[in-house]
Amino acid sequence: MRDSDRGTRVDALTGAVVRVAADRERRPNLPSDGCPFCVGGLESPEPYTVKAFPNRWPSLDGDRCEVVLYGPEHDRTLAEMGPERAREVIDLWADRTEVLGRRDDVAYVLIFENHGAEVGASILHAHGQVFAFAEVPPVPAGVLRRLRVGAQLLEDDPSLVVVERDGWRAWVPSAPTQPLQVRVAPLERRPDLPSLSGCERDALASVLVEVLGAFERAFASPVPYLFWVVQRPTDGRCWSSAWLHLEVSSPWRADGVLRHVAGGELGSGVMINPVPPEQQCLLLRGSR
Ligand SMILES: [Zn+2]
Question: Hey, what domains does the chain have and what are their CATH numbers?
Fold first, then answer.
């Protein structure tokens, strides 16, 4: 492979950070020789409950990409597996954050899931991913910078709260960029997944399962969604204002209808959202 095929580039004009990973184009879409994540499959020869392993088709060089399996069941989502399994997944996320974050060459651990073929999941067996970045990427860097200068994470409008219990709130942000979007955060500031107590992890598991279930059932067909975790960087700096939260969103604006981000949005940086946040909240509350 030529060096120019991989690497991080910055567009000098716009400041956009781009990771070129041309060899990912060769990854199989749907493996023809059985599911690699089922027990006995390529990545899971031995029985397991949850597990993490290096991604065979990494987007970043240097052992920075992992796959997280939520369970041996081929056709169940994290929401369907329930809060006890979600707690085990959260423990694994926290563990991977600590282990990868301890490396001198890792400044930020990003935990995320792309759920559904429409948002890029190439294998349907429930799984998420971990990216360990050498530098804090632009999105969390921007959020952390705004928190540092006084931006508030939690929003209090009761008409936008989807679930609140046991110290956690899940709400539709008042300025959502996506047609379905929810933020999940602890009411008391916690910087990252490893700093959560056992009780706090149980409560997050319960709320997260409820939120993901609400997404899946928001329309008649199973809804594709994305989520990621925003947490304290692991570069050893203080980050005293870092406040753990999850961003969950779907690009669907109606059953089976993808909202496109097009010229008006990309050309202006102003997102046009066809679904008002109050309506998003009603949709999600109604489908819990
Ligand atoms: Zn499978």
Answer: 3-286 (3.30.428.10)
